[in-house]
Amino acid sequence: MANLKDLRLRITSVKSTQKITSAMKMVAASKLRRAQAAAEEGRPYAERMERMLGELTSSLLSVDGAPKLLAGSGLNDNHLIVAITADRGLCGGFNGSIIRNTISKIVELQAKGKKVKILCLGRKGSDALKREFSNQIVSTLEGLTKDGVDFALTRDIASNLIERFEAEEFDVCTIIYNKFISVISQQVSIEQVIPFPVSKVEAADAEAADESENGKYLMEPSEEEILDDLLPLNLSIQLYKALLESNASEHGARMSAMDNATRNAGDMLDDLTMTYNRTRQAVITSELIEIISGAEAL
Amino acid sequence: MAEKEGKIKVEIVTPVKLLFSESTNMVVIPGGEGDFGVLVGHAPMISQVRAGTINIYNGDKVSTQIFVEGGIAEVTSEGCIVLAEEAVRVVDIDKKVAEERLLKALAAQKSDKNHVDGLNAPEVVAAEARVSAAQS
What we know:
Chain A has seven helices and six strands. Chain A has 298 residues and is an alpha/beta fold. Chain A has two domains: 57 residues, Helix Hairpins; 216 residues, ATP synthase, F1 complex, gamma subunit (Pyruvate Kinase, Chain: A, domain 1, 3-Layer(aba) Sandwich), CATH 3.40.1380.10. Chain B folds into two domains: 83 residues, ATP Synthase, domain 1 (Sandwich), CATH 2.60.15; 42 residues. Chain B is 23% helix and 43% strand. In chain B, a hairpin with a 2-residue loop joins strand 3 and strand 4. The chains are: A alpha/beta (298), B alpha+beta (136).
């Protein structure tokens, strides 16, 4: 039987672990609330942007010389994958599922003979992907979601992506991130952002057409110039939305992971206390027996 | 014009939040090719928005002024949506901060070797518009 001192030490250590996990849960809960609010406030913009693009793109697609961000570079050989993970761990399967999905996507694309490059947003992703694909990671950005998601920063990343696209470093860009479903569930979502996926827009377009019945819009100054403005903006918005969702998911995942850990620690404490008390009883009993038998011997 | 019919729905949205959403009589937007006013029944239009102040009229008076830093406006017969990269109510602009920003933008422009004289960088234009919005 384990001795009393060891048991006492175990109990204290489990207790302090529980304190840490429950504190982390509280922190994650309050951050989650903020992240969720931010994600909700960002939604109206993204919705309206999507509708407006729907109006514009359908008429332009058939025309030659449509912007490259919309029509693509005509090739499909070089892929860029933007993997959005957290900077820190201890959040259940949050990072793991992104990494798994990224790897399977890379393998799938490479099997088709495409070249794949990776841009990691978040340290955990690059840590894991470095092992297998170290020479394919173009760059890694950290600390994006430290205190909320900053739109100006997102815009910089987007314009960097566009520069790379225009320098023909890649033809297709896909982002992989965790979509926030609820506090306890996230869904890995894979979205193509460059070239702008038109099928999604057509659905939105049909809806918008029903709604307005106004037919064509006047453009000022011109359709091309507006699209030139709108497409890069849309890319920033898509990224921004993904980062917001991912941020909310991260805190949700961490909160439920820490909740589980706290509960497990509680169970463990119960078991340990029980064993501790039993052992203490046994020690007392054996001491009593010793005293009694000692008295009898006299 | 009957009061109720004469109203349009104006929304000013930034990526961070929905800043303004109200029904109003008229709105004047700094378009890419000059200011334009929107009343009920306006032809559907999509326009660029340059850095400047959006005036929202309720009755004959300006009820709200909002400074936007570029974006896109979508006008329909019932309303108008402005997608701005950055927007702030004029009353909330801190003039000192705005002026500092202008100085910084000017300094950045000076140190930029590719800069063409007489043509201001977008940052400078935006900062200038912000300062003048704060003054009005």
